[in-house]
């Protein structure tokens, strides 16, 4: 047991925070929200050059094989700086999915370019029903000639407009879990994209697939076996979105403390009033609990023990705690932060977007409730006590 | 970063669990808990049990070897306290947790040589004399005075809200030695033998059903060697000792026990009722509680990890204490909710659930909200010491 960052981890986090704070001005970040890209290509290249895109990849794909927790520290820092990037779409969704389930030639084709930031990929999972269960996937993939044909509509596809490849999850048979991943070039015939403008500035897209034909080697893994890889993708997404939320919370608390120390009303800094102090203490409390649950979640991705419990606990908690923290931050600031040129609004909106991604709090509480009733020992965590029975 | 016990730590955890289950059987609970004190362990059993812990080498196991300790990492100490709290073991109080830490940090060579070996054997009981009738959360307003008289000091005053004073061999006593200095100066800490003439103890029944104490000091003569640290520098000792105290009180064992007890109850049917756990609302309530319990657990082991790395967390200990106690209160509230009509039934009542324990704790744990730095005081400490907000 050693729940503390070591010197290397602290240095990595410090480096990432100082990069994230300086990479873009607030105005640049705001301007990016309305562009097709939503992120700055130059900044993404810089991040890739620092090794952050490929950080957790194996050496053969240009990676440094850093731990899952370390990548979480980078994501936390980017959240703190509100830096938009295709890290989620290209690395956390697509790169790790290929590492998990892709063929050697698929990995050789995509991973080095993802790692250098030169190529981008994304994953199309969710459909208009908004569900994340296997039966919610209705887009069909069927045999056609020597390859396959895909028909259906996906929503909430990150960075689809700038990705060269879209990995589409589609139904290959009637049993609920008979699902298949296939790599579709974005410019393939029959692919139509529509931007879904959303709070937080992330580039989300509707992707329509109408008679889209792909070669047989576009399929990831075996036909009909995609669901377990999709579940792992969702867990990774939830763990790292929790990390982003922690960074959002850190920035929001930091802005609030800075403001409360200098804003004078009634002849005193407002931070000297206990009403304000107690709000700040609560924000800090929720932030630190969120941070620790999130560290455990991202660390568990690389560990031997089942991560579902740890990740769902983190995402459920953080998805409620951090948006609440940003609401309190605004309350303490008052009208000044209601203006768009004050940085707090960036975090307010990003918290709203991030809590919804890869399962919101209610989704993860349902996951945990299912675990509670289906496998109580797994629900109770490592080496639980025998349940007390002396009462009955 | 490692969120799991390593093999050696896990083996120790198993050893402690085995020890506690062997020593604290249901029969022992029945025999040594005092019904007239709302089921608190008797003083005699508490002292005897602490000696057993000492004999097994557990009390001093995390202390440095120079003080006769086992030199093991603070993680082991956290495991011991966690498991003791979970199993509701007696003796897990200041006498084995934070007073030894404070003696190591601030005591004289003679005090350390005299007390630490006996403390590690579990032979010494302390109470902490900070609060007074007029000085609760504001400890710098204490009035108990110590006046130099030759080689001695003469102590006069009253301490209030003094847990376990009735069974204490010594008091860790905060006094005012110079009333002319500024509030936070002019205080001095003493270790006073409770057998000293002039000490009397008064009883105060609590709404939780057990007896609390206040202590009068009437011209109590103590030698100068009883001073802890420097004369007039007692505030530093109080603050340092309180950091140790908060870390000790942040143990998550109680919360773990509260969760397991409630979970066990929810898996049972009563007289043909549906099992609560089959109800979606109950499931969601248990899920929410499990998440909060996990947060409190990790936070405590985070603190232990920082200590094990040789760091001295300060406001973080306040944070961990707040999280643990707020979480425990959340469980008290949830248990009331889930037990429905049974919630108010007292221990021993026909049809009382879970031995009436949750009704007792609903009252007893009220003190979490005000004792050893109540919730609001703790938020003040976090805001000013931790977050740098102006006073």
Describe this structure in words.
The complex is a heterodimer of chains A (392) and B (391). Chain A has twelve helices and ten strands. Chain A has 392 residues and is an alpha+beta fold. Chain A folds into three domains: 111 residues, Acyl-CoA dehydrogenase/oxidase, N-terminal domain (Butyryl-Coa Dehydrogenase, subunit A, domain 1, Orthogonal Bundle); 102 residues, Beta Barrel (Butyryl-CoA Dehydrogenase, subunit A, domain 2); 153 residues, Butyryl-CoA Dehydrogenase, subunit A, domain 3, CATH 1.20.140.10. In chain A, helix 5 runs antiparallel to helix 7. The radius of gyration of chain A is 22 Å and the shape is globular. The model of chain A has no long low-confidence stretch (mean pLDDT 96). Chain B is of the alpha+beta class and 391 residues long. Chain B has three domains: 86 residues, Orthogonal Bundle (Butyryl-Coa Dehydrogenase, subunit A, domain 1), CATH 1.10.540; 107 residues, Butyryl-CoA Dehydrogenase, subunit A, domain 2; 137 residues, Butyryl-CoA Dehydrogenase, subunit A, domain 3 (Up-down Bundle). Chain B contains twelve helices and ten strands. In chain B, the strands form three sheets. Chain B has a four-stranded mixed β-sheet with strand order 3-6-7-10. Chain B has a four-stranded antiparallel β-sheet with strand order 4-5-9-8, with no helix packed on it. In chain B, helix 1 runs parallel beside helix 4, helix 9 packs antiparallel against helix 10 and helix 10 packs across helix 11. Chain B is globular and about 75 Å long. Classes of the chains: A alpha+beta (392), B alpha+beta (391). At the A-B interface, helix 7, strand 10, helix 8, helix 9 and helix 11 of A face helix 1, helix 8, helix 9, helix 10 and helix 12 of B.
């Amino acid at each position: 047991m050693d729940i503390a960052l070591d010197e290397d981890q602290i240095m990595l986090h410090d480096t990432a925070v100082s990069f994230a704070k300086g990479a873009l001005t607030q105005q640049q970040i705001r301007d990016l929200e309305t562009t097709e890209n939503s992120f700055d290509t130059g900044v993404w290249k810089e991040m890739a050059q620092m090794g952050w895109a490929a950080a957790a990849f194996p050496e053969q794909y240009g990676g440094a094989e850093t731990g899952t927790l370390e990548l979480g520290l980078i994501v936390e820092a980017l959240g703190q700086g509100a830096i938009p990037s295709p890290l989620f779409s290209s690395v956390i969704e697509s790169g790790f999915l290929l590492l998990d389930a892709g063929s050697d030639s698929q990995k050789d084709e995509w991973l080095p370019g993802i790692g250098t930031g030169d190529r981008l990929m994304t994953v199309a999972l969710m459909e208009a029903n908004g569900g994340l269960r296997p039966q919610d996937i209705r887009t069909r993939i069927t045999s056609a000639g020597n390859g396959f044909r895909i028909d259906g509509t996906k929503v909430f596809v990150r960075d689809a407009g700038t990705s060269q490849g879209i990995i589409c999850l589609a139904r290959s048979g009637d049993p609920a879990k008979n699902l298949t991943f296939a790599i579709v070039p974005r410019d393939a015939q029959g692919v139509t994209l529509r931007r879904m403008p959303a709070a937080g500035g992330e580039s989300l897209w509707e992707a329509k697939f109408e008679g889209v034909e792909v070669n047989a080697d576009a399929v990831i893994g075996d036909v009909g076996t995609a669901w377990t890889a999709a579940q792992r993708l969702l867990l990774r997404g939830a763990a790292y979105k929790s990390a982003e939320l922690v960074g959002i919370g850190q920035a929001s608390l930091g802005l609030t403390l800075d403001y409360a120390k200098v804003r004078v009303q009634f002849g005193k800094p407002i931070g000297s009033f206990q009403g304000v102090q107690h709000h700040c203490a609560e924000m800090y409390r929720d932030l630190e609990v969120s941070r620790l649950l999130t560290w455990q979640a991202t660390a568990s991705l690389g560990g031997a023990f089942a991560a579902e419990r740890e990740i769902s606990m983190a995402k459920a908690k953080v998805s409620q705690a951090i948006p609440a923290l940003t609401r309190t931050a605004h309350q303490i600031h008052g009208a000044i932060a209601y203006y768009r040129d004050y940085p707090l609004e960036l975090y307010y909106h990003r918290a709203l977007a991030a809590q919804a991604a890869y399962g919101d709090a209610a989704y993860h509480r349902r996951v945990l409730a299912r675990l509670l009733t289906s496998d109580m020992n797994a629900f109770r965590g490592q080496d639980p006590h025998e349940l007390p029975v002396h009462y009955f | 970063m490692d969120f799991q016990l390593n093999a050696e730590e896990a083996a120790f955890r198993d050893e402690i669990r085995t020890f506690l289950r062997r020593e604290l059987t249901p029969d022992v609970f029945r025999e040594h808990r005092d019904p007239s004190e709302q089921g608190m362990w008797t003083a005699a059993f508490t002292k005897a049990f602490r000696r057993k812990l000492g004999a097994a080498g557990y009390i001093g196991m995390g202390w440095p070897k120079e003080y006769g300790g086992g030199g093991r990492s603070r993680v082991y100490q956290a495991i011991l306290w966690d498991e003791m709290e979970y199993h509701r073991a007696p003796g897990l109080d200041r006498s084995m947790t934070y007073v030894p830490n404070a003696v190591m940090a601030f005591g004289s060579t003679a005090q350390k040589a005299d007390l630490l070996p006996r403390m590690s054997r579990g032979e010494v009981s302390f109470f902490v004399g900070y609060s007074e009738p007029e000085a609760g959360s504001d400890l710098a307003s204490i009035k108990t005075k110590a006046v130099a008289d030759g080689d001695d000091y003469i102590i006069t005053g009253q301490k209030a809200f003094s847990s376990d004073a009735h069974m204490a061999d010594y008091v860790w006593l905060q006094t005012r030695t110079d009333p002319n200095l500024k509030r936070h100066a002019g205080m001095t800490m003493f270790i006073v033998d409770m057998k000293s003439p002039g000490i009397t103890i008064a009883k105060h029944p609590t709404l939780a059903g057990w007896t609390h104490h206040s202590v009068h000091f009437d011209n109590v003569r103590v030698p100068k060697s009883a001073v802890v640290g420097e004369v007039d520098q007692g505030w530093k000792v109080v603050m340092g000792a309180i950091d140790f105290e908060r870390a000790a009180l942040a143990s998550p064992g109680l919360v773990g026990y509260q969760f397991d007890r409630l979970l066990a109850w929810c898996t049972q049917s009563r007289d043909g009722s549906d099992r609560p756990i089959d109800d979606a609302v109950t499931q969601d309530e248990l899920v929410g509680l499990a998440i909060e319990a996990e947060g409190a657990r990790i936070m405590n082991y985070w603190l232990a990890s920082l200590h094990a790395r040789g760091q001295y967390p300060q406001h973080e200990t306040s944070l961990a204490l707040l999280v643990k106690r707020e979480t425990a209160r959340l469980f008290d509230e949830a248990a009331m909710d889930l037990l429905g009509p049974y919630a108010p039934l007292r221990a021993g009542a026909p049809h009382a659930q879970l031995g009436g324990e949750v009704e007792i704790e609903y009252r007893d744990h009220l003190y979490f909200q005000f004792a050893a730095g109540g919730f609001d005081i703790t938020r003040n400490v976090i805001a000013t010491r931790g977050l740098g907000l102006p006073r």
